[in-house]
Amino acid sequence: MTTIDRMAGIYETRFWYPVVLNVFGGFRCLSFENLIRNVTAKLGPTNGRLIDIACGPGTYGRRIASSSKEMFGIDVSMGMLHQGVAYAAKERICNMHFARARVEALPFEKDLFDGALCCGSLHMFRDTVVALREIARVMKPGGALSVFTFTAGNAGILKFRRVREWYRKEHSLHVFDLAEMEQDLKASGFEGFEPEVLGSILTFTVHKQAA
User: Fold this and answer.
1) Model confidence, pTM
2) DSSP code at position 175
3) What would the pLDDT profile of 102-146 be if each residue is shown by its tens digit?
4) Which domains does the chain show, CATH number per domain?
5) CB of 202 within 8 A of CB of 150?
């Protein structure tokens, strides 16, 4: 956690996301700016309350928050949250809120949010289904969940099986097979999985199943 806290200052600089996307996703397969546009566009039509899961400094949520979209960012890192508050104040974003919480125990009531983001973190959760079910619990039926994570694609170091196995063993990095991802989503109450894969970068939007 200390390491993650210290990363907050460089998280949105050229020293982090561009490096991660090139090394893990594949060289020049997707820029940081295009990734943000890709993910945030999927929630574009959704208004109301939205939740940004493992938000970091609000990298995605700050770019969505508006007069019609009230964004709640949660993370376990106080360093990331403090950085997000500073960014939001500097950018004069009033409809972005931050709180410390774990994805496995979200401090919100059932069916509260109209939509959700989970960007750059799903592959780090200890139990994917547990995390997804908790996200689904706080979402309204039909609500959209926009995700960025990794798959075993055709570019970047994650295309190599031994690399994926090493990262999973040493750093608990879960690189998803598409069939496995779809199965986990269905088991968690989501539907409409239509993956977009660039290199080893996986983005998609799914919806919480109707009650």
Assistant:
1) 0.94
2) P
3) 999 999 999 999 999 999 999 999 999 999 999 999 999 999 999
4) 2-208 (3.40.50.150)
5) yes
